[in-house]
């Protein structure tokens, strides 16, 4: 593994100084895929003082990145050889269908590099990484940021500022790789949410994939009622905003997380079916409305305590972080590691 | 009925000049209820040069309206006597539970005045108006505008600018009252959508009340999944925005429209049930996603043709307007009437 600890006198900007001072060289970053998310990682990592280089299969984003002053190539071999030589952190930022072939090339050219991804659904990515034999150096990631637009030009070095960035704490993860991925997310301005991959996938089914299904259904139903679209205003517009997302993108996320989405849809059917039956029988929607109002209130008042004391690599660190993340805890500055405790 | 046509030399600001010039005196407006909507009607009507006066049961909004320079009272008898004397258009802007007693007083003190309302669900209002014996001079209305806030201080004379304002074209409506209500909506800057009350209620079930149910359900489901609220971002925030509305307000709208909402919920259950079954069986959400995307596209590209030629009061005018409204047609400047055709 290309993760030998190195000494450096460079101060760590944006990191809280620890009781035990510690320093880590800023690992170079190799971004594979220069779309909205990959392109934004490239910009943010460069702004944080990282050496960063990237690859994209089609040449337009490569040209655009170059003319913005970034180091980009359409030659995958070249990018991966450099990653291997510099022991770079490789960031997989390609769409799900391109992942398997990309991972084969990583396995051929840069099998020792620490590896992360910024693709949404984690179980599907984990399965591909495992199939490629790269699980030992992989820690999954998911920055919860995006815009309605896509591609290099839509990206921004500020896209991740204050956004939650999930970093996986599955049983297999290596503490040194984990620290690398955490440091990249913090360098990008994000707050790190440690989470198990399966819990991440269940959560995004509820907060991202289910909202897409509800938006699609609302649009279809209103479209069938005479006079509805001409009268539609704020509630409909907000409720269907994500139905304007290109179908291919919606299908890619939702279908990659089908088991969890089937569960979330089943719960929705139960809840709305009960509400319909009660409204028909008693004329009241009190139960659903009061529960929804209370739940939305808990979201608005969510506390986000800092995770400060977990020592990455110490006994039980993964479960400790998963528990903290589940209760809303976030990492805003680098955690101590066993090495850094002196 | 206090609707005798009067001559006036005052030009009509904001009205298209017709082939046959015509003039209508600006009828005074009596607003009953000075909350967000009533208070905004008062401001907008005054800004359009109308004589406008209002009533509110509690005195704080009355004091606030007065210190903003408006003519307001907490004495209902006084407001209604003045409405009767000036043949004012009375605008019912009280919450649904206050409507029946308000209508009894209107029937006692100002039974000849033209009457409209700005309360959401039309069938429930029609039933109360009918019970009070005031149907002949009543034309229902519903401005599709609002904010997250309520009360006099949240109002604005610009609230209705470019907003659809439904004016009912039910079988019973009198053309002279209809013209009065249309003119008020146009004076407030709204675009008038002519619609039958039953079609209005079915439409708002789909575009307003169903979105509330979906938002409540989404909030409840995500709240039950560990890690979901800490990761929630744009899709969840937009999808649950209206779940932050006070439960009493949501219940008042939804429960007053229960039959149509039961239907809309039934269609939702069917659509989401099919999507769940297909996803479980074949791993695909293509059908729902493509239909939703197409429907949202139709909303984004809705054409809003001007209704220009219907002569209010001519044979079949109500059905002609209902048909035009159903296809997205709107009234942006006063329609001709039989009287105005010379």
Structure, described:
Two copies of one chain form a homodimer. By secondary structure, chain A is of the alpha/beta class. The first copy, chain A, folds into two domains: 205 residues, Rossmann fold, CATH 3.40.50.720; 84 residues, 6-phosphogluconate dehydrogenase C-terminal like domain (6-phosphogluconate dehydrogenase C-terminal fold), CATH 1.10.3660.10. Chain A contains 13 helices and eight strands. A five-stranded parallel beta sheet of chain A has the order 3-2-1-4-5, with helices on both faces. A three-stranded mixed beta sheet of chain A has the order 6-7-8. The radius of gyration of chain A is 22 Å and the shape is globular. Chains A and B meet through helix 7, helix 8, helix 9, helix 10 and helix 11 of A and helix 7, helix 8, helix 9, helix 10 and helix 11 of B.
Compact description:
The structure is a homodimer of 342-residue chains. Chain A has 342 residues and is an alpha/beta fold.
Features:
homodimer, about 350 residues, alpha/beta, Rossmann fold, 6-phosphogluconate dehydrogenase C-terminal fold, 2 domains, 13 helices, about 50% helix, disordered N terminus
What's the helix and strand layout?
The structure is a homodimer of 342-residue chains.
Chain A (H helix, E strand, L loop, with lengths): L28 E4 L3 H12 L4 E4 L3 H9 L3 E3 L2 H11 L2 E4 L6 H11 L5 E3 L4 H10 L9 E3 L20 E5 L6 H13 L3 E5 L1 H27 L4 H4 L2 H7 L6 H10 L1 H25 L3 H15 L16 H10 L16
Parallel strand pairs in A: 1-2, 1-4, 2-3, 4-5, 7-8
Antiparallel strand pairs in A: 6-7
Helix pairs in contact in A: 7-11
């Amino acid at each position: 593994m290309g993760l030998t600890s190195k000494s450096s006198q460079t101060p760590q900007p944006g990191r809280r100084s620890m009781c035990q001072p510690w320093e880590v060289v800023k690992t170079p970053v190799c971004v594979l895929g220069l779309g909205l998310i990959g392109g934004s990682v490239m910009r943010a990592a460069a702004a944080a003082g990282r050496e960063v280089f990237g690859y994209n299969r089609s040449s337009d984003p490569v040209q655009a990145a170059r003319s913005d002053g970034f180091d980009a190539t359409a030659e995958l071999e070249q990018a991966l050889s450099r990653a291997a030589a510099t022991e770079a952190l490789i960031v997989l930022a390609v769409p799900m269908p391109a992942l398997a072939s990309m991972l084969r090339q990583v396995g051929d050219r840069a099998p020792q590099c620490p590896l992360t991804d910024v693709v949404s659904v984690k179980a599907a990515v984990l399965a591909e990484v495992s199939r490629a034999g790269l699980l030992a150096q992989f820690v999954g990631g998911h920055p919860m940021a995006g815009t309605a637009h896509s591609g290099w030009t839509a990206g921004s070095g500020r896209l991740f500022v204050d956004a939650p960035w999930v970093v996986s704490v599955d049983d297999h993860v290596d503490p040194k790789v984990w620290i690398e991925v955490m440091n990249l997310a913090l360098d990008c301005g994000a707050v790190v949410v440690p989470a198990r991959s399966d819990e991440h996938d269940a959560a995004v089914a509820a907060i991202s994939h289910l909202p897409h299904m509800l938006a699609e259904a609302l649009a279809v139903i209103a479209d069938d009622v005479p006079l509805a679209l001409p009268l539609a205003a704020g509630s409909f517009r907000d409720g269907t905003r994500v139905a304007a997302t290109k179908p291919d993108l919606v299908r890619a996320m939702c279908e990659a997380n089908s088991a969890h989405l089937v569960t979330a849809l089943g719960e929705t059917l139960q809840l709305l079916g009960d509400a319909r039956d009660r409204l028909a029988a008693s004329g009241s929607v009190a139960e659903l409305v009061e529960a929804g109002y209370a739940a939305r209130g808990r979201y608005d008042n969510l506390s986000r305590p800092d995770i400060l004391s977990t020592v990455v690599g110490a006994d039980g660190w993964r479960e400790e972080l998963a528990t903290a993340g589940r209760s809303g805890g976030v990492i805003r500055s680098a955690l101590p590691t066993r090495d850094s405790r002196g």
